[in-house]
Amino acid sequence: MKIFIVLLFSFGLSCGQPIFAEPSQKKFMVVQSMHYKGGVDVSEFGVGRNPIIYESSLLPSKSSDQIARGAVFDGLVASLEKGPLPTVIDIERWSIYTENEIERVKNKEKFLEILKRIRAARPEISFGFYGVIPERTYWPLVDKNKLAEKRTWETLNNKALADFAPYVDAIYPSLYTFYEDQAGWRRYAEETLKVARKFGKPVYCYLWPQYHSSNLRLKEKYLPVDYWGMELETCYQYADGIVIWNYEPDVSWDPNALWWQQTLKFLKSHAIKN
User: Is the per-residue pLDDT at 258 higher than 80?
Assistant: First the structure.
């Protein structure tokens, strides 16, 4: 045995390579779709801006699902630019996570019709939908007493895998923060990302450095630095990238904000250069 170890060590030295090679650098993208007064450009740090099409542009009426047509639609698709990641389509009024099969199929066809029309106009651009698959859910993934709800969610994931996932180029799960419970967030994120991986497409997490506006006590508050850092690392472990989103059109960008400084540390620690 001693002779074998010596020979193996000698072989490694003679080849000029370590016996246990370092793992290759993981390909991971960090982009942003933030809105601040005067805009924000952090491309010097390798964080480019990724395009997003909001439903207000595609569905101008709040009371109708009629897709924009004519000059409005043509102008919208003509203005699209390629981003670092597939362009995001954000439509939140429909869901394919319903047990009403007629409604589920109808909503799926609405999504795919929009995608078909945009692709026909701009075939060189790739696309994904914000938060459509897997649909964001929290308590069924965190609370063990909600096993039935989790099973329903998983069943609908399987349907989405078969009849929706093949048509998109990337998966954009929404992992926004609702509560101060870091362990709860991590479990909800891990469960969501494990499912997202099953769709067989690149997975890019949507993160928001503030608490979600649905939490009236915490809305507009930025996450503690350690909380934000944990979210970044969790996404690095399970996904292919992150889209940082925030909307503060009346506030100027602060490059010294603690959450952003933590982001820069994260980028440096993993040598992320998009």
Answer: yes
In a domain, 22, yes or no: no
Amino acid residing at 149: E
Average pLDDT score over residue span 124-150 = 97
List Cα–Cα distances, 248 to 40, 55, 151, 154, 231, in angstroms.
11, 19, 37, 35, 21
Looking at residue 62, which CATH number applies to its domain? 3.20.20.70
242 closest CA partner among 165, 168, 174 = 174
| Model confidence, pTM | 0.89
Residue at 253 is within a domain: yes
Q: For 44-68, how does the pLDDT look when each residue is reduced to its tens digit (9 = 90+)?
A: 999 999 999 999 999 989 888 999 9
Separation between Cα atoms, residue 92 and residue 132, nearest integer Å? 8
Cβ-proximal residues to 247 (8 Å cutoff; 6+ apart), any chain: 34, 35
pLDDT in tens, 104-122: 999 999 999 999 999 999 9
Domain tally, the chain = 1
- Quick one: DSSP state of residue 214? T
Q: Count Cβ atoms below 10 Å from residue 77 Cβ, excluding itself.
A: 17
* Chain centre to alpha carbon of residue 192: 11
